[in-house]
Structures are given as C-alpha cells and as structure tokens.
User: Which sequence fits this backbone?
C-alpha cells in the first residue's frame, strides 16, 4: 500500500446536542460542564455489545467530522483565537476546524449508556460538538497513558480567562420559566458559554452591539458592556431565525 492511499471512514454515530449553531460552542470540551449531549450509534453499530465494558470508564475520546467546515481551502497558517486573532501558527500546531482532513478530537465525560426503541445512546457531559456531528470513532480515555503531567500547552498554557455574566430581569424570569417547563438549567448553561467570550477574535471588542446565539430552538440575545456581558432576553427561534442569522 502506498503512503498516498486515500482512506474512507464510516460514520458510526451522530451527536444530539444543545448547540444548534457553531457560534457560541466552546473552543474545547470540558469548559461548559452544563452542556449535555447524547451520542447515538447508527446502524449497523447500534448494538449494546459494541460498548460492553465502556461503563467502567469515566471519559472517552470522540473522533468526529467537522461536517460544517468542509470547504476545501485549508491554509498552512491560521490565527488561533487564543492569540487574539493577531498571530499565526501552523495549521498542525492548532485545533482549527478547517484542516486538510476535517477530523475533530474531543475528550468528554460520559454518563448513562442505554438503549431506547432499538437505538443505542451514550450520555455526554461538557462536549464541544455541534448538533448533528457525525462521529467516526470512540475510544476510552486511559488515564495512565493519556494524562501527561509535564505536558506543555504552547500558546494556550492555561484555560482562557472568564468574563463576568449578568442577566436582565426579563432573561432571569425566562430562564426560570424554561427550567420549570423543561428541567434544563438554562441560566447556568448560558453563563458558562458566554463567560468564554465566544466572539470571533477578529472583531473589534469595543463594539458594544447586541449579539445572539442559539441553544436548541432558542435565540439568546446578549450584549457586551464595559466590564461584563449582559443576557438581555431569550426568543424562540421560530420568530427570530432571520434576525439571528444577521448577527454572525
Ligand atoms: N475539540 C475539538 C474541536 C476544537 S474546535 C478538536 O480539538 O478537534 C471547537 C470548535 O469546533 C467549536 O467552537 C465549534 O464551533 C466547532 N465545531 C464543533 N462541532 C463541529 C462540526 N460538526 N462542524 C464544524 N464545526 C464544529
């Protein structure tokens, strides 16, 4: 076999996630713990025996396709958000989503593994994956080999600093009502997401205009202030789809 062979992979599963749009998704897993998702195995892999023993592990590696970054125009050098969008590093020194092969890699905490209506699911906590993401492989996280105490983090040596988030009274009430109706802790989820400052690094950060991002079928409206971000209100997407898309 030559070194230049092309390989193709089967999709083994699909992600169901609160992140229904790329904008807002944290830049790595484990940063937004309130984010829950499920990984559904698709036929012919939708068999519990493929996961036998996985419940003994707390975390898995997920290899997936950046299916919403499929443009064929990867660049040798990219500007990681952690360098403020100013400095460039090599594509292979970065976790950029546009790559020669659109493959992503995330380590996530797992919850229940279960079967429902002939479908097989793994609960995921703190993932950074878009709803509908195709998964090509799952492997258990092996602490003895995967934890590297002396590892160096290059241009991202520590987690990014967090923004302070406040909620308008209207948004607070909307989050309370939403929690009562769905059980979802929306206020915590929004706080964890926005505190990461999802704005693209090329934007002028002194522009205090309103933004929106999507969770499930909700459009979360928020606005940067001088020393914090304020969550203004929350709109069901059916009324606000067009308006929301103007923002990004
Ligand atoms: N942990 C992964 C992802 C890092 S990039 C890795 O290192 O490979 C994180 C970004 O990927 C998120 O901000 C989100 O916008 C983007 N993303 C997540 N799922 C995606 C998908 N299916 N298609 C395109 N982009 C996706």
Assistant:
């Amino acid at each position: 076999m030559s070194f230049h062979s092309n390989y193709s992979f089967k999709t083994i599963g699909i992600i169901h996630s609160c992140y229904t749009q790329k904008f807002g998704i944290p830049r790595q897993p484990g940063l937004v713990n309130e984010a829950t998702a499920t990984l559904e195995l698709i036929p012919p892999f939708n068999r519990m025996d493929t996961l036998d023993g996985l419940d003994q592990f707390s975390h898995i590696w997920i290899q997936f396709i950046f299916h919403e970054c499929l443009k064929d125009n990867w660049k040798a050098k990219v500007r990681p958000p952690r360098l403020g969008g100013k400095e460039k590093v090599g594509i292979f020194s970065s976790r950029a989503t546009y790559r020669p092969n659109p493959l992503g890699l995330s380590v996530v905490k797992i919850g229940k593994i279960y079967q429902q209506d002939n479908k097989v699911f793994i609960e995921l906590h703190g993932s950074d994956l878009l709803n509908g993401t195709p998964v090509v492989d799952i492997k258990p996280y092996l602490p003895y080999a995967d934890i590297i105490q002396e590892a160096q983090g290059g241009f991202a040596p520590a987690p990014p600093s967090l923004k302070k988030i406040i909620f308008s009274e209207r948004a607070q009430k909307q989050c309370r009502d939403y929690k009562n109706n769905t059980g979802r802790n929306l206020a915590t989820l929004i706080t964890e997401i926005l505190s990461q400052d999802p704005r693209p690094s090329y934007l002028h950060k002194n522009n205090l205009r309103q933004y929106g991002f999507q969770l499930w079928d909700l459009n979360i409206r928020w606005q940067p202030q001088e020393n914090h971000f304020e969550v203004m209100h929350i709109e069901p997407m059916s009324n606000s789809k067009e308006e929301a898309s103007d923002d990004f």
Summary: The radius of gyration is 19 Å. Residues 165-236 form a domain with the YaeB-like fold fold (CATH 3.30.2310.20). Residues 22, 25, 27-29, 66-69, 95, 97, 104-106, 128-130, 133 surround S-adenosyl-L-homocysteine (CB under 6 Å). The mean pLDDT is 93.
